[in-house]
Design brief:
The protein has 959 residues and is mostly beta strands. It folds into 5 domains: 191 residues, Galactose-binding domain-like (Jelly Rolls); 76 residues, Sandwich (Immunoglobulin-like), CATH 2.60.40; 292 residues, Alpha-Beta Barrel (TIM Barrel); 97 residues, Immunoglobulin-like (Sandwich), CATH 2.60.40.10; 273 residues, Distorted Sandwich (Beta-galactosidase, Chain A, domain 5), CATH 2.70.98. The chain has 10 helices and 60 strands. Strand 44 and strand 45 form a beta hairpin. The longest helix has 15 residues.
């Protein structure tokens, strides 16, 4: 029997050096990134002549490194969430195994020492083999982990060098990397040649502890060679291995990321280090940093760029970290693999807590609701060395980052003895950090109880330590004493998530519930340009025979890194300053874990009907963490209409991640109500055979439909209950509404006019709206009247039959001329809002174009709703148009396409503007929830079919 190919071995790495810390030093280093020669082949077993220096590669293509070859026209991206895109027969992969051969030549720069040299690959997907100057160096797997090779014996010191690399798309390692992402291949992180000076440091481990009781710290640098550690700011100059005590030190936390600059020195090598003193512990059943319980306001983060895939640039990483800080995020789970090391440096610098997760997921071995397959790598002893190796390489690479407070064994890989081996190794190497893993409910190998997408009611039980018990009493007692986090919750797919504020209330109520990580940071849409159009592709757009559609687009950022409404909502929900009214004074609460509020300024603005009346600042003392204070109201002028006081907490000075004035938190307090404005005497109804007139309204006498407002032609309005389903409605959701809605026929309602009654001052049109093939329906009475030059409609709705489904929406739809593209409104804004996702919007006057009201979700769906609108105007360039007012409020969307068009589209580029604008004026909509992966809509936000009445007032506007 032939020996297994190296890419099909349980441990395919050979020849690689021992894992060690990732660092930069003053020893020479040569970045080999750039343009490499490249050849793509459909199989893995091609000839090896290309490894020889004399091989003629003049007809090869050129490919950048770092990059993924699928994004440069070789093969195609493919997306699956759980399923492996190849037959499951570990450790084997298909013979048709796309393979990329790489070649690059380089010369050593002048002065390169003729000592030992190491070649480092920071990330190669999924398995690779290396030659230098025709000499084979070794093989490695573990796509998101570093691999280093000693190349001293093969390096040409004074002549040119040829580096040849063969990379395979599939390998045994692919079974360990089923991580809900695009399958993308190639050398996607940096490749570096490192000079290793004689007597230099190969590895080091900084131990910087902090004692919150005394304010002191200790520092020890463990090195593999004689060395010294110097920290001038702390007057430290000590030998490696020596523990130094510091009487007073400023600790590191995500809120105050204090780093001390130091230098490790050994022989001729100097290593700059940044030291953060902090202590992570499980104490009293809580996860603590520096002696305090912390509350994680986190996100899960895949590495992704719409043009570069996982080959993310340092500028993009910094942009992400700055965006996180600006949106009140304080924690990142590196789902589901260690990130580029530069990202962790940024977390150290800017202040983000990190759960660093091992490059491990075997989700395809787990069938929903059943035990994993018996050969699942988590419990198959043949995989033990590979799994422990992955844990070792992560911990050794990242151990010196103060931002990392928890190690994670991986994700969605079932349970088993190999996870236990990983945990035992990690505890032995670094007992200073707790361990995390979610998929084993017994928590036997970890220190933190973690769940995904637990509904609110279950989170409350866990908060009270009253969750369902485990069969093993000892394991149950151990788990019940653990702190709890939601490693994934609030699935941010499409329009959503809803229910964030209810989760946050539980985190703040129960100390055991220490927050969680929204899934996820960014939509993984790949940018595609066709002619003049551009869109972001998802699963299936590249012809994959097996894919999971747009389930890859589930982030708080759109693929181009534009914040979504969900990110704005999350920022508001997790804001670390709470401003509210406590009787007559204001109450300001500090929800930070460590900081007082001295870094913030508080401003206020009084607006009446959306127009500023007065503004100023509040004198707020530097409230300590967890404390509250009552602050007197500012002196306000009298108001005569609806008036709101908006109080904002903003940065008092520039920070590394935002300028002074950046808003951290805000609240609105209602100061005055709009005075009652009863309509004047009603205008008589004028009915003829050709037309019925009610004030400015013109109606068709045959069916009672409004056809015009003044001189403006309109269509409708009439009852509408359909919305283009959001991802949380759709068939893959936990609580799918869309299939039931379609089966009932809510997307194809039919309208029957039962009666048209034109009275002296009111037109009443009675209808029944219902889907075909059912007895269910909705009776609707449209009551039209006019006064003061405005047309008033009261819609009275009552269900016919027993409705067991929620309605998607309940409102009116009408069409107006396409020229009315300028929108002004007074209500909630500036962004969209829905029943269970409206914390981020505030009452005010706002303006936008119809185009700007749209939210370009990667998969088109219901969007753009402006909530609690008092009035809205739609006008043309000359100011002519239409005013719509609620009595008292109405929700409104305005689009250049119908809900049916939105429903049929698969990308925003599919939507074509019509010759009119379609308006939805809603009494209510069903909530958003998180059911695309998490819980559905909470009962308070379900739109049940029940009697309802709502009023809309129309007024034509002249230019």
């Amino acid at each position: 029997m032939t020996a297994a190919a190296y890419w099909e071995r349980y441990q395919p790495t050979s020849g690689a050096s021992a894992a060690r810390a990732w660092f930069r030093s003053d020893a020479p280093a040569l970045d080999l990134s750039g343009e490499w020669k490249f050849r793509w082949s459909p199989r893995a077993d091609g000839a090896l002549e290309f490894t020889c220096p004399g091989f003629d590669d003049s007809d090869w293509a050129v490919l950048p490194v770092p990059a993924h070859w699928q994004l440069h026209g070789y093969g195609a991206p493919a997306y699956t969430n759980v399923r492996y895109p190849f037959p499951v027969r570990p450790p084997y992969v298909p013979t048709d195994n796309p393979t990329g051969d790489y070649r690059v030549t380089f010369r050593l720069p002048p002065g390169w020492p003729e000592q030992r040299a190491v070649l480092r690959f920071d990330g190669v997907d999924s398995c690779f083999r290396v030659w230098l100057n025709g000499t084979e160096i070794g093989t490695a797997a573990g796509s998101r982990l570093p691999s280093e090779f000693d190349v001293t014996g093969a390096l040409n010191w004074s002549a040119g060098n040829l580096l040849a690399v063969r990379v395979h798309q599939w390998s045994s390692g692919s079974y360990l990397e089923d991580q809900d992402m695009w399958w993308l291949s190639g050398i996607f992180r940096r490749v570096t040649l490192l000079a290793r000076t004689d007597g230099g440091i190969e590895d080091y481990f900084l131990h910087a502890d902090y004692d919150h009781r005394t304010g002191g710290g200790t520092l020890r640098a463990d090195t593999d060679a004689p060395a010294r550690i110097a920290v001038p700011e702390l007057a430290i100059d000590a030998a490696a291995g020596q523990t130094v005590s510091i009487r007073a030190v400023q600790p590191w936390s995500a809120e105050s990321p204090r780093l001390y600059a130091g230098v490790l020195a050994a022989g001729a090598e100097r290593i700059p280090v940044r030291i953060g003193f902090r202590r992570v512990a499980i104490a009293g059943g809580l996860l603590t940093v520096n002696g305090r319980r912390i509350l994680l306001r986190g996100v899960n983060r895949h590495e992704f760029d719409p043009d570069r895939g996982r080959a993310v640039t340092q500028d993009t990483m910094r942009h992400d970290v700055v965006l996180m800080k600006r949106h009140n995020i304080n924690a990142v789970r590196t789902s589901h693999y260690p990130p580029d090391p530069h990202f962790l440096e940024l977390c150290d610098e800017y202040g983000l807590y990190v759960i660093d997760e091992c490059d491990l997921e075997t989700h395809g071995f787990l069938a929903a609701g059943r035990d994993p397959a018996p050969d699942n790598p988590a419990d198959d002893p043949r995989w033990r060395d590979a799994l422990v190796d992955r844990m070792r390489r992560m911990v050794e690479r990242d151990k010196n980052h103060p931002s990392i407070i928890v190690w994670s064994l991986g994700n969605e890989s079932g349970a088993g003895r190999n996870l236990t081996a990983m945990a035992e190794w990690a505890r032995g190497r670094d007992p200073s950090r707790p361990l995390h893993y979610e998929r084993d409910p017994t928590c036997r190998d970890v220190d933190v109880y973690s769940r995904m997408y637990a509904p609110h009611a279950e989170v409350e039980l866990i908060g009270r330590r009253e969750e369902d018990p485990l069969p093993d009493a000892a394991l149950d007692a151990r788990r019940r004493a653990m702190p709890f986090i939601l490693c994934e919750y609030a699935h941010a797919m499409g329009n959503g998530p809803g229910g964030l504020s209810e989760y946050q209330a539980l985190f703040e109520k129960y100390p055991r519930c220490q927050g969680g990580f929204v899934w996820e940071w960014i939509d993984h849409g790949i940018r595609v340009r066709t002619g003049q159009e551009e869109y972001f592709a998802y699963g299936g757009d590249f012809g994959e025979p097996l894919h999971d559609g747009n389930f890859v687009a589930d982030g708080l950022l759109f693929p181009d890194r534009t914040p979504s409404p969900g990110l704005h909502e999350y920022k508001k929900v997790v804001e670390p300053v709470r401003i509210g009214r406590d009787g007559e004074p204001l109450r300001i609460s500090n929800l930070y874990d460590f900081c007082d509020l001295s870094h913030l300024s508080f401003t206020w603005c009084l607006e009446q009907e959306g127009t500023e009346r007065a503004a100023g600042s509040l004198d707020v003392p530097p409230i300590g963490p967890g404390e509250s204070v009552a602050v007197p109201f500012p002196q306000l002028p009298p108001v005569t209409g609806e008036a709101w006081l908006t109080v904002r907490a903003v940065l008092a000075a520039d920070s590394p991640w935002a300028a002074a004035g950046h808003e951290i938190g805000w609240a609105q307090v209602k100061i005055g109500d709009a005075p009652p404005r009863p309509p004047g005497p009603r205008t008589p109804v004028v009915a003829t055979e050709r037309e019925i007139r009610v004030g400015p309204g013109r109606f068709d006498p045959a069916d009672g439909t409004l056809t015009g407002l003044g001189e403006m032609p309109v269509e409708g309005p009439r009852l509408d209950v359909w919305r283009a389903p959001i991802d949380n409605d759709r068939s893959f959701a936990r609580e799918p509404n869309e299939p039931a809605w379609r089966e009932l026929g809510l997307h194809r309602m039919q309208h029957r006019v039962d009666d048209i009654a034109a009275g002296p001052d009111e037109l009443v049109v009675r209808t029944r709206v219902a889907p075909a093939a059912t007895r269910l329906g909705l009776f609707v009475a449209y009551r039209w009247s006019a006064a003061d030059g405005a047309l008033r409609l009261t819609a009275e709705v009552s269900p016919d039959g027993t409705w067991r489904l929620p309605l998607p929406r309940l409102g009116l739809r009408m069409a107006v001329p396409a020229a009315l593209g300028n929108v002004d409104w007074y209500g909630l804004g500036p962004g969209e809002a829905y029943p269970d996702s409206r914390r981020a919007v505030r009452v005010g006057r706002f303006a936008a174009t119809v185009e700007e009201l749209q939210t370009p979700y990667v998969f088109p769906q219901e969007n753009g709703n402006r909530a609690q609108v008092r009035w809205m105007t739609l006008t043309d360039g000359a100011g002519a148009g239409l005013s719509i007012a609620g009595d008292p409020v109405i929700d409104i969307t305005a689009r250049r396409w119908t809900s049916e068009d939105l429903d049929a589209a698969r990308h925003p580029a599919d939507l074509r503007p019509a010759d009119r604008i379609w308006l939805n004026m809603d009494h209510a909509q069903h909530g958003l929830g998180s059911a695309s992966c998490g819980p559905g809509v909470l009962p308070a936000y379900r739109l049940t079919a029940a009697p309802a009445a709502f009023t809309v007032v129309f007024r034509p506007l002249s230019g």
